[in-house]
Amino acid sequence: MTPKLLPGILIVLVLLAFIVYSEGVSNGTKSVIYVLEIEGMITEGTALDIVEGLTEADEVGAEAVLLELDTPGGVVDSTRKITEAILNSQTPVITYVTPKGAIAASAGSFILVSGNIAAMSHGTTTGAAMPVTVGIGGRKTADNKTIKFYAGHVESIAASRGRNTTQAKRFVTDNDVLNENTALERGIIDLIAGDETELLNAVDGQTVSVRGGNRTLATKDASLYIKHKSTRSSVLKLLGNPQIAFILLMVGLYGLIFGFMSPGTYVPEMIGAICMILALYGMGLFDVNIFGLLLIAIAVILFIAEALTPTFGILTTGGVVCLIIGALLLPQEPLLFNPEWFRGFLLTILGIAGASAAFFLFAVAAVLKTRKRRIKVGGEELIGKVTKAETEISEEKGMVKTRGEIWNARTQTGEIEKGEKVVILARDGLTLIVKRKE
């Protein structure tokens, strides 16, 4: 090697070292955190969105998934799918109750404890995970066997993440509700963070266990990628809500009925068919009580019978009772909701029942009014009308014009001059009997 080449070689080596160093720093600052959100009721659409997000994060090699929670709870089967996906994720999952004032109630507490790292923002709460059922008596606690099962399930989730299993069980057995400080003291969460930046800086460098081994987090100064919900998951989230499914079912039934009763427009039956299909699909996303569906169908039949054969509200009363009971029995599986959701569901049921009763009672009143009205067909409709004499009218002949038609006319007594106003008293075949209008 000649001395003249040595400086050039050194320069090349320095440049290569700088490039390698720069790439290392660049890669370190390009850590990507996938942000997924659970907001509102947890349904099949929520589960689809979270499972797809976790799969995508695994595929792109994201540093971690930040799962932000603000939910009153939801459907059991959808919650199970979410916790299963989190526990089997190759990417570390940070569950975080945010923003201030948010809740991870009922099913949300299952998801919170399933994260590799669990955190809460200031002014947030979690817990109240006792499963409930909906029935004739309204919302009530599920049977002891069901409670024991879900208590054991959340205990297993907490144990797999090294969290306080006793407290996790009490979410189910005693309906415990914890704020962020108490949750931290009792080992349900790992830290309290005011915002995302504080949270990611705090967990940077921590080692967590994921499927496939341990991972040390490099979350400081990481970039956030907010995964937006897909159209499909949004639609499933809407249809999988028992409230929405019930409303669609009623609109579908009424649409089909009114369409068949007044054929030719095609609009009511088209809307009814679409709503019915969506309702049946939505109810397929959670367990449905067939007896509840049967009662709803009976309620609609009673409403129609009331309109066709008025019984002064007897059938309508029976229909309202069947509709309310059927709707309450509709969701068959135990639910992980807080009481606020049930109050909204109950108000929806009572609102639809009241509107149905009012509508069909109005229809009954219209039918009765029609029956009492004197039947008038053809020329009978002319009796009592005032018109003008087109010619002189005597007891034998004359002519009047009414409704654009020329009729023969005669008087009972006396004569009427042409142009005078007359009142139609009766009809004799094609001749109208008139008298001078006083």
Write the layout of secondary structure elements.
Blueprint: H1 6-29, E1 32-39, H2 44-60, E2 64-70, E3 73-75, H3 76-87, E4 93-97, E5 103-105, H4 107-114, E6 117-120, E7 125-127, E8 132-135, E9 138-141, H5 144-160, H6 165-173, E10 177-179, H7 180-185, E11 191-192, H8 196-203, E12 207-210, E13 213-216, E14 223-226, H9 231-239, H10 242-261, H11 267-283, H12 290-308, H13 314-329, E15 335-337, H14 339-372, E16 386-389, E17 399-402, E18 405-411, E19 421-428, E20 431-436
Parallel strand pairs: 1-2, 1-14, 2-4, 4-6, 5-7, 6-11, 18-20
Antiparallel strand pairs: 3-15, 7-10, 8-9, 12-13, 16-17, 16-19, 17-18, 19-20
Question: Any overview of this molecule?
Answer:
With 438 residues, the protein is of the alpha/beta class. The model is unreliable at 17-29 (pLDDT under 50). The longest helix has 34 residues, at 339-372. 49% of the residues lie in helices and 21% in strands. The protein contains 14 helices and 20 strands. The protein has a 6-stranded parallel β-sheet, with helices on both faces. It folds into 3 domains: 29-230, 2-enoyl-CoA Hydratase, Chain A, domain 1, CATH 3.90.226; 234-372; 378-436, Nucleic acid-binding proteins (OB fold (Dihydrolipoamide Acetyltransferase, E2P)), CATH 2.40.50.140.
